[in-house]
Every structure is written in structure tokens, then in C-alpha cells.
Amino acid sequence: MPIIDILWDLPDDPDGNVQHIAEHGLVPADVEFVVQHPLKRSQSRSSGLPLVSGRLTSGEQVVVVYQMLDELTMYPVTAYCVEE
After folding, report:
1. Left, alpha or beta for 59 (phi > 0: left; psi -120 to 50: alpha)?
2. With contact defined as beta carbons under 8 Å apart, do 78 and 17 qualify?
3. With bands split at pLDDT 50, 70 and 90, how would you rate the model's confidence at 84?
4. Which of 4, 9, 31, 60 could disulfide-link to 13, CB 3.0 to 4.6 Å?
5. What pLDDT is attached to residue 12?
6. What's the pLDDT tens digit per position in 5-46?
7. Distance (Å, rounded) from C-alpha 17 to C-alpha 73?
8. Secondary structure in 3-state letters for the chain
């Protein structure tokens, strides 16, 4: 899946995806790393949206749930760390 662009809302938008992932202790660079280095692709059981999971260089496992806006543009809906 060649992602060319990842769409982020404004950082100060309280309803945006940057704030949403921040609530889970993540920043856009974390999400972008996982998207670029996925270990697994699947589908969210709760929303039905596609997801990728991977590990940050720190070792944390992260899940990114997203929407494809077109063939090359991804909108991260949420991302969170998974406890093992």
C-alpha cells in the first residue's frame, strides 16, 4: 500500500486526530512510523475500518485505525498502544 500523504487535523483542533492520538500518548511521528513499517494489516472489529500494527523503535506495539480518502491519502482515525 503506497501511502503518499497522511492527513492530519490542526494540532489545536479538540476533535481532530492529532488530539485523539495524543490522548493515547502518541504523536503523529509515531503513527507515521508504524504506517511506514507495518508488521500486520487487519480490520478493526469495532468500526470495520482498516488498521495496521507495528512497533515503535522503543518497542511499544501500536495499532493505527485509518480511512483511505483516495488511493494515496490516509486519514488516521485513532492510534493506541497495545499491552502485551
Report:
1. left
2. yes
3. confident
4. 9
5. 92
6. 999 999 999 999 999 999 999 999 999 999 999 999 999 999
7. 15
8. CCCCEECCCCCCCCCCHHHHHHCCCCCHHHHHHHHHCCCEEEECCCCCCEEEEEECCCCCEEEEEEEECCCCEEEEEEEEEECC
Q: In what order do the strands lie in the sheet with 5-6?
A: 5-6, 73-82, 61-68, 50-55, 40-43
Q: Please tell me the total number of residues recorded for the chain in this structure.
A: 84
Distance CA 19, CA 37 (A): 23
Cell numbers linked to 82: 497495545
pLDDT score at 4: 76
Cell of 40: 500486520
Q: 43: which 3 cell numbers?
A: 480490520
